[in-house]
Amino acid sequence: EPEVTQTPSHQVTQMGQEVILRCVPISNHLYFYWYRQILGQKVEFLVSFYNNEISEKSEIFDDQFSVERPDGSNFTLKIRSTKLEDSAMYFCASSLRGGPPNYGYTFGSGTRLTVV
Amino acid sequence: KQEVTQIPAALSVPEGENLVLNCSFTDSAIYNLQWFRQDPGKGLTSLLLIQSSQREQTSGRLNASLDKSSGRSTLYIAASQPGDSATYLCAVGSYNTNAGKSTFGDGTTLTVKP
């Protein structure tokens, strides 16, 4: 079964450093998403991306965050200057369609980001 | 703004028992609802997806139902096993742009005792 692949599985970074989280969505999917889950809290929507531009972003997704699809297969989330509160599990997801009829989302296994 | 609530927050049952997990949502304008399983420190495993036009989906010992008008979904687990111990998340899919998004509940943490 096709998978969404995320690398690295765990990243430790110093506060103030830039990090790039990488995702390879399912090859024929057109919509891409990032979610995050702070330890012990809900999974929260960050951003959706379609046709090489952001479709929607949450209030969490401020100027410190950016997304990019640099080639035909990768989808990245960049945090420019990490803060302690950015420590979380970051999930990438993709879907074939953005609306009905929708096949649902396939999530990656996540990248655990620890900011020290 | 969509709000998703899962009850109970935690549940402990003896092996072999049938159980029901509940999910409620405030905005019935959804296009799907997905149930996920999450093991501690791990990613999200999709269990069942129900489109808004459907009323239920089944996979093995799992059955999920959806009642859009009342804003509720249930996940029924038959003959529970210790391996079912995990956190179960309900995620409601909605859209207001050209891409959807899911709103997650807090989850129900299930413990099945041998």
Short description:
The complex is a heterodimer of chains A (116) and B (114). Chain A is mainly β and 116 residues long. Chain A has strands spanning 5-7, 10-13, 19-24, 31-37, 43-50, 53-57, 65-68, 75-79, 88-95, 106-107, 111-115.
Instruction: Return the string of H and E elements of chain A.
Output: EEEEEEEEEEE
Helices of chain B, by number, come to 0
Q: What portion of residues of chain B is helical?
A: under 10%
Q: Provide the gyration radius of chain A in Å.
A: 13 Å
Please give the alpha-carbon distance between the first and last residues of chain B.
41 Å
Helix content of chain A: under 10%
Structural class of chain A: mainly beta
Element-level helix/strand string of chain B? EEEEEEEEEEE
Q: Quaternary status of these chains?
A: heterodimer
- Gross morphology of chain A is globular
Q: What is the residue-averaged pLDDT of chain B?
A: 93
Gyration radius from CA atoms of chain B, angstroms:
14 Å
* Beta-strand percentage range of chain A: over 45%
Question: Mind explaining what this structure looks like?
Answer:
The complex is a heterodimer of chains A (116) and B (114). In chain A, 0% of the residues lie in helices and 49% in strands. Chain A is mostly beta strands and 116 residues long. In chain B, strands 2, 4, 5, 9, 10 and 11 form a 6-stranded mixed beta sheet that branches. Chain B has a 5-stranded antiparallel beta sheet with strand order 1-3-8-7-6, with no helix packed on it. Chain B has strands at 4-7, 10-14, 19-25, 32-38, 44-51, 56-59, 62-67, 72-77, 86-95, 100-104, 108-113. With 114 residues, chain B is mainly β. Chain B is 0% helix and 60% strand. The A-B interface holds A 31, 33, 35, 42-45, 48-50, 55-56, 89, 91, 95, 98-110, 112 and B 31-32, 34, 36, 41-44, 46, 49, 51-52, 89, 91, 93, 95-107.
Main attributes?
heterodimer; A: about 120 residues; mainly beta; about 50% strand; B: about 110 residues; 6-stranded mixed β-sheet; 5-stranded antiparallel β-sheet; about 0% helix; globular
